[in-house]
Amino acid sequence: MHLEINQLQKQFKTKRGLLTALQDISLHIEEGEFVCAVGASGSGKSTLLRLIAGLDTPTAGEILVDGVRVTGPGSDRGMVFQSYTLYPWMSVAENVEFGLKLQGVPKAQRKQQAAYYLEVVGLSTFTKALPKELSGGMKQRVAIARALASKPKILLMDEPFGALDVQTKEAMQQFLLEIWRSTSTTIFMITHDVEEAIFLSQRIYVLSARPGTIRRELQIQLPSKSNPQIKRHSTFQKYKDDVMKLLYEDGMQTNRICEVQSSVMGNR
């Protein structure tokens, strides 16, 4: 699997004219990698993920998966959102099978695949449960199992742990690393949580505020990620300081631009 994005731009029409959300985005993700994009609100992170998923179309540039241009949604890209997006009237197993059903996978095969991935995420004893009977972390595990069941080339994750409490979030981060290692799934995840990005990923793309551009690409090399205590390691803290400095500088620059624009408007 090879994801390539070349000079991507996304603009939206507003009452005040065109709003540029993303500008000149170029990045790549290789097979089996875990890559994160981190940025503050307004950096276009979710917009970028929606474009890769084919849920929206770019204004300019291109997105390629294994050399094929993305023109819409496809089973080669699985998506996990922050909100669990589970169907409340369906059982856990039915939710996991849903994507396979849309693809026309025979009933016996989709039941087998759903059972396998529910085993992978540790929920094989909850197949008949409804989403309302599950905790937040369990719901997100179901969403991950549903995305994996279609065997996508790349798993796209839109701040999947943003709605969870701190303890559940840390447990889910560790769980996701285990899933990544055991399935060799390629993952591209966006987050505003700098520590989360450093802990999970092999590489980080740091996005600037609107318009979203890539400030820097960082290679993450840590002694071990088998224990969350690595977050206290000096190397981890150095990565965090570097990313936070980039985000802080970007925020200061954005504030100065806003002040200038306000001054210009006030003098008219």
UniProtKB/TrEMBL annotation:
Main location: membrane
Topology class, membrane: Peripheral membrane protein
Pfam families: ABC_tran
Location of the protein in the cell: Cell inner membrane
Domain of life where this protein originates: Bacteria
Domain ABC transporter: 3-234
Keyword Transport recorded: yes
GO cellular component: plasma membrane
GO molecular function per UniProt: ABC-type quaternary ammonium compound transporting activity; ATP binding; ATP hydrolysis activity
InterPro entries referenced in this protein's UniProt entry, alphabetically: AAA+_ATPase, ABC_transporter-like_ATP-bd, ABC_transporter-like_CS, ABC_transporter_ATP-bind, P-loop_NTPase
Keywords: ATP-binding, Hydrolase, Nucleotide-binding, Transport
EC assignment: 7.6.2.9
Family assignment from sequence similarity: Belongs to the ABC transporter superfamily. Nitrate/nitrite/cyanate uptake transporter (NitT) (TC 3.A.1.16) family.
The protein, known as: ABC-type quaternary amine transporter
Native organism: Fischerella thermalis JSC-11
